Amino acid sequence: MHHSIAMGLMDSDFETAKIHAQKDQAAFQRLVDMFPQDASYQNALVSAYLLNSEVDQNEGRYAEAVARLLKGARFAKTSSRIIQ
Questions:
Q1: What gap in Å lies between CA 9 and CA 18, rounded to an integer?
Q2: Closest-CA residue to 50 (of 28, 81, 80)
Q3: What is the C-alpha separation between 68 and 48, in angstroms, rounded?
Q4: CA-to-CA distance for 59 and 55, rounded, in angstroms?
Q5: Contact assessment for residue 41 and residue 56, using Cβ atoms and an 8 Å cutoff
Q6: Residue 83 reports pLDDT greater than 70
Q7: Helices (H), the chain
Q8: How far lies 64's CA from each of 5, 13, 19, 42, 69, in Å?
Q9: How far apart are CA 71 and CA 64, in angstroms?
Q10: Which of 1, 30, 50, 80 is most buried as measured by Cβ atoms within 10 A of its Cβ?
Q11: What are phi and psi of 83, to 5 degrees?
């Protein structure tokens, strides 16, 4: 839910979108920690990394944006059941 809200508000209310993007990543990180073999949670976490990378980029924090993209890519590469 936070992901959809963040995406919908990215252009019109960036500060609220940012909050929802952060909550989205935190929620899916907790779910992946609790259920590490669940591919849908793994995919949602990678998607949250991408969304938060967009937030970083929109704020001009390019190094953080790239770092978050790389973290998501590494997670996707090492996850055993990631849906491709």
A1: 9
A2: 28
A3: 10
A4: 6
A5: no
A6: no
A7: 2-9, 14-34, 39-58, 62-78
A8: 22, 21, 17, 21, 9
A9: 10
A10: 50
A11: -80, 125
- Residue 5 pLDDT: 80
d(CA 42, CA 15): 26
Total Cβ atoms within 10 A of residue 82:
15
Task: Tell me the two tokens of residue 14.
Answer: 């960036």
The pair of structure tokens assigned to 2 is 């936070």
Q: CB neighbours of 40 closer than 8 A, spacing ≥ 6?
A: 83
C-alpha distances (whole Å) from 65 to each of 2, 6, 10, 31, 82 are: 19, 16, 15, 23, 22
Distance CA(42)–CA(29), nearest Å, equals: 8
Query: pLDDT tens for residues 6-62?
Result: 777 778 888 888 888 899 999 999 999 999 889 899 999 999 999 999 989 988 999
Tokens 């990678």 found at: 46
